[in-house]
Write a structure and sequence with these properties.
heterodimer, A: 359 residues, alpha/beta, Rossmann fold, 5-stranded parallel β-sheet, 6 strands, 48% helix, B: 500 residues, mainly alpha, 21 helices, globular
């Protein structure tokens, strides 16, 4: 019976067989190597969509991709500015560096890493990652009361779970290692996301909105501001995880990287309604505790709401909390001058004396 | 079980491993069991329907053969087309029963799954279409359209005495259920496939190499080209054409032309490769159709197994019937009606909708016009025409075929009209979607490069004739591209800019 069932005669393979396959096994890693080499050139950005670190946040991806392009093209970056959308649309690095150059006669390279909905918790993670990767001489933390509220952060908090970010924080994992070490893999992840039509619209919107220095311009539409009388933060108190994150960012302050905290201004008419309880609550629940924390770490805290916000042109606001391009130009010019002054007073290191080490 | 899945790959490897140990007869049993398991993995209802179709057609063929046994055999030369003499002899009523059974089932399933069917059957059908309903699977049997055509061709061929009625239930069941061709063809003829099942199979170096080359080529077509192109065009381009600009509409239908081609040709190539590993050759289904210089040529190159079926069982019988009434072969009736009828049947086979009928009607019209024009001229082989003429004919044929894909893609006549209108008016559109033309042309270029390599050598695995280092490089590159195409996108479409 078995002889009627089993008779292994059909398959008739003779040697040599499989040599082409073996040769392809040798060529495959060479192809991977070529892909890796190509992905590290400037040419790759002409043909491929922005690379990705696997985060489900296209704004973060585009900011990181533009920063990498800037570093690839111009060398190390001198200062990074981290914060929420108030930073994103509120600080124009080009205007900042122009003002700085006018005061000092020297140029610096700054990048805006403002991410929508960012709060203290994600700030702590992102600043640590950026510091480890790019070693900026100066790191600005642009903050505002909503950065310490658990009502916000829906788009930025998930970044904490990203494998690459975890890897950069010292939590080893294979995916994070691959993303960090392989430029080709980052472009592969970027292409994979970009191919989806729904994703592509969003990614390209951000890529077009955010310029090469990370600035997300908010055009001046000359529309009247609304909700100036409405209180934004009711029953305001600091969220512990956001405070922890902020402290982690402050802790970066040292010889390698100098940290400065900047209070991001809001529209003066809205200021009394930002925190429930008015200006005194703003001072008591926000400014004072932030000052104390900054002082603890030896970090300067540049306050702007009382003195600088009223100087912003009347139509320099996109809404009650965000500067538009006119307002950003004003504020960035002021900031550039402030940096120059602080440098002359030795509050911060001279950014032009020695370049930061390349990442 | 999706053919593009690790489960299918593992399934095939296991089936192959045991297959090679068996005798020919045991191999057929094993293949049949494997085919049933494959189909069962989709739905038990599908298998139930397949078994019923197999049993009915198997026994009907016996009765048909008995009825026609005393009919004189067709003369040499008449066999291929079922010549006039055989038509005058006694035909079996069981052939009519068989044709009615298979055609009625085809019509019923297509009708039930169409929008017209929903309007006819109303709420009962709506309830049945509930995805949790036990009856839903019966209404959408995967592969039924293909194996029912096989059954029809088998019964007709038996009645024409072109193939004896099978007395081997197992082999016939395998002919119907053979898993590499079960869900989407090619539509194989019993006269070729049954004898192959009866012969011992030998899978040597060449067969294995050829099979693997077909699989790799198919994966490149389906994943690297078709899937990438699919991702490049907007998902509602064919549902809301009015909101898109003219350039986007042109780009969209151009991409769609190559999506459809590479997806189907890729699938067929993979299945032919898998079948080659079993020592069973499946017929070629695509032969670089976009290089066709006329529509009569196009339909010898596109979905060849279906085209041949339609030619043998619709076109030739209609032509013969008309010729009996109007013996002049160049009469407009004889030139126009056969292709129009054939393409109408083809369109209904693809789907019961005005969109599909429009698509089929256009192709019928193209062929009818060609025949009318050619009817008044002496015949000339395409290959003898000047090269420039051939190229321009090919471009025109492609352009017209591409325009005909619009109703096929929209599956709706009014949407097709909107789409064509948008293409003609070339308006800016209101949708912000930007067509990545660079990537679209790159994918199309790859498709044309593969086609060209196959076309001018008339060999669908021409790469096997290249020197070994070139073959190895191509294989490594193909694997890299296929792996790169497998990535799953993270959905970030909800990330509109938020000023917080």
């Amino acid at each position: 019976m078995p002889e009627k069932i089993f008779k292994p005669e059909s398959l008739s393979i003779s040697r040599p067989f499989g040599n082409t396959f073996l040769l392809s096994l040798i060529l495959f890693p060479l192809l991977l190597g070529f892909s890796e080499g190509f992905s590290r050139t400037l040419l790759v950005d002409e043909v491929m969509p922005p690379p990705s670190v696997g985060a489900s946040n296209p704004e973060f991806e585009v900011k990181l991709a533009h920063l990498e392009q800037l570093v690839k093209r111009d060398g190390a970056v001198d200062c990074l500015i981290v914060g929420s959308s108030q930073i994103d649309g509120g600080i124009n690095p080009v205007a900042l560096t122009k003002a700085y150059a006018q005061r000092t006669g020297k140029t610096i390279l700054c990048y805006n890493f403002g991410i929508s909905t960012l709060t203290g918790e994600a700030m702590g993670v992102i600043t640590r990652v950026l510091e480890a990767k790019y070693h900026p001489r100066l790191m600005f933390l642009g903050i505002s009361p909503r950065d310490f509220s658990d009502q916000f952060g829906e788009n930025s908090r998930p970044l904490l779970k990203n494998p690459w970010i975890q890897y950069m924080l010292g939590n080893d994992n294979y995916t994070g290692w691959l993303i960090d070490h392989s430029s080709a893999y980052r472009y592969y992840l970027g292409m994979t996301n970009w191919k989806d039509p729904g994703n592509r619209v969003v990614i390209e919107e951000y890529a077009n909105k955010i310029d090469g220095f990370g600035y997300g311009r908010l055009p001046n539409h000359h529309t009247p501001l609304v909700q100036l009388d409405e209180v934004l933060l009711k029953k305001y108190k600091f969220n512990p995880s956001d405070v922890d994150g902020f402290r982690q960012a402050l802790n970066l302050n040292g010889a390698q990287t100098r940290v400065v905290v900047i209070e991001m201004p809001v529209n003066p008419a809205f200021y009394p309604n930002y925190i429930e309880g008015g200006e005194s609550a703003y001072h008591e629940k926000f400014t004072q505790p932030v000052s104390a924390m900054a002082e603890e770490y030896g970090v300067p805290f540049w306050q702007t709401q009382v003195e600088i916000a009223p100087q912003v042109p009347a139509d320099g606001w996109n809404d009650r909390r965000h500067l538009n391009e006119d307002g950003a130009a004003f504020f960035s010019t002021w900031l550039g001058g402030k940096i120059a002054d602080a440098q002359m007073q030795s509050q911060i290191p001279d950014l032009t004396q020695s370049a930061s080490p390349s990442p | 079980m999706d053919i593009l899945s690790w489960q299918f790959a593992a399934f095939t490897v296991v089936v192959l491993a045991i297959y090679y140990l068996l005798t020919r007869r045991a191999q057929n049993v094993w293949l049949l069991l494997a085919s049933y398991v494959f189909y069962l993995s989709m739905a038990w209802q599908y298998l139930a329907l397949l078994l019923l179709t197999t049993v009915v057609n198997y026994f009907l063929a016996w009765r048909i053969e008995r009825d026609v046994l005393d009919r004189p055999r067709p003369a040499v030369g008449e066999a291929a087309t079922g010549g006039a003499r055989s038509l005058r002899s006694r035909s079996s009523p069981f052939l009519s029963v068989g044709l009615l059974w298979n055609v009625a089932a085809l019509v019923l399933f297509h009708l039930a799954s169409s929008t017209y069917g929903q309007s006819i059957f109303g709420s009962d059908l709506h309830l049945a279409l509930n995805p949790h309903s036990i009856w839903t699977r019966f209404l959408f049997p995967v592969g039924f359209s293909f194996y029912s055509l096989q059954a029809i061709s088998y019964l007709v061929d038996v009645s024409r005495r072109q193939v004896p009625a099978s007395r081997d239930a197992l082999d016939f069941a395998l002919y119907m259920a053979y898993f590499p061709k079960l869900t989407a063809g090619p539509i194989e003829r019993a006269r070729g496939f049954l004898p192959a099942l009866a012969r011992p199979r030998r899978v040597d170096n060449q067969a294995v190499t050829r099979g693997l080359a077909l699989i790799v080529t198919g994966l490149v077509r389906k994943l690297v080209i078709a899937q990438t192109l699919q991702q490049m065009i907007s998902t509602d381009l064919f549902k809301s054409p009015l909101s898109y600009g003219g350039l986007q509409l042109w780009g969209g239908i151009l991409a769609y032309s190559f999506i459809l081609y590479n997806d189907f040709a890729g699938y067929t190539s993979i299945m032919r490769g898998v079948s080659a590993l079993f020592g069973l050759e499946l017929n070629q289904n695509f032969n670089q159709p976009y290089f066709s210089r006329s529509f009569s040529e196009f339909w010898t190159r596109w979905h060849i197994s279906l085209s041949n079926w339609l030619r043998d069982y619709i076109f030739f019988p209609v032509s013969r019937t008309l010729l009996r009434r109007q013996p002049n072969p160049r009469h407009p009736l004889n030139l126009v009606v056969p292709p129009l009828t054939t393409m109408l049947v083809s369109s209904l086979w693809h789907g019961f909708s005005l969109g599909m009928v429009t698509w089929g009607g256009l192709h019928g019209l193209y062929q009818a016009l060609e025949r009318l024009v050619q009817g008044s001229r002496p015949r000339q082989s395409q290959n003898r025409r000047p090269a420039l003429q051939q190229v321009s004919s090919a471009l025109l044929t492609f352009l017209l075929a591409m325009l005909a894909w619009v109703p096929f893609a929209t599956n709706d006549f009014s949407l097709a009209l909107q789409y064509w209108k948008g293409m003609v008016l070339l308006g800016p559109g209101v949708n912000a979607f930007r067509m990545p033309f660079g990537w679209i042309f790159a994918a199309i270029g790859l498709s044309l490069a593969i086609d060209w390599a196959q076309y001018h050598t008339a060999d669908d695995v021409v790469f096997l004739k290249w020197v070994r280092p070139a073959q190895a490089f191509l294989l490594a590159l193909a694997v890299l591209l296929v792996l790169a195409s497998l990535g799953q996108a993270v959905d970030v479409s909800g990330f509109v800019y938020q000023g917080f």
